[in-house]
Design brief:
The chain contains six helices and ten strands; from the N terminus they run βαββββαββαβααββα. It has 265 residues and is an alpha/beta fold. The protein has two domains: 85 residues, no CATH class; 152 residues, UbiD C-terminal domain-like (3-Layer(aba) Sandwich), CATH 3.40.1670. It has a five-stranded mixed β-sheet. It has a three-stranded mixed β-sheet with strand order 1-4-5, with no helix packed on it. Strands 2-3 form a two-stranded antiparallel ribbon.
Length: 265
Amino acid sequence: MISIVASTPMRYDENEYELAGALRGAPAPIAAAPLTGLPVPWGSEVVIEGVIESREREVEGPFGEFTGHYSGGRSMPVIRIDKISYRSDPVFEHLYLGMPWTEIDYLMAANTCAPLYEQLTRDFPEVQAVNATYTHGLVVIVSTKKRYGGFAKAVGMRVLTTPHGMGYAATVIVVDDDVDPFNLPQVMWALSTKMNPAGDLITIPNLSLMELGPQANTPGIVDKLIIDATTPVGPDHRGNYGNAVRDLPETAEWLTRLRQLAATR
């Protein structure tokens, strides 16, 4: 853990330690910083102490971001570093991020999919799975059963209004429950055969998006897209979906035999 202690002579903020204690269910152990005596988490690998210079700002950035693009430079407060303390052979933890896929994408994938799935299924228990692994969920793929015509579009709308979707989801692809949203060939098949641009592309203007989204003309505002790649159900009757190809019942058995035969050669 790296602790950065920056303060004015007047005060410092103890909220972070109260939050840490709430998450632990017990008081968080703290120690005194060597120079200022301010509280820092006990066991910190590195402690950086300094002062926030009053009314001084400098341009910081641009930085490579998880979007695979550079962010712009920003005017940020200046911190004067007075002392750096560290343990013997300190462990410096960091994450590499930039053009996906990087460490941050792998670590954040579950943290993106699981909350969206939980939030969606509260209102739509028909939702089977949510793939929001791509770039923090800027694209979200949802597999769902359907109650009635237009149901998939309603699910897509709900994605955009979840706590996570409001800031991140820019494009939502909705597929049938027999399509694995984590299997991109299946998703592309659904897009190729189930989506009719005449009625299955829904654009919603001027919705919120996190400011790092490079596709926005105005940072933080973007038009969002729902793609309905599901089979229409009544009373919505479109297309010719009654003759879909299905595997023969014995296909699985033959695949097992072929794999066993290949393994013996």
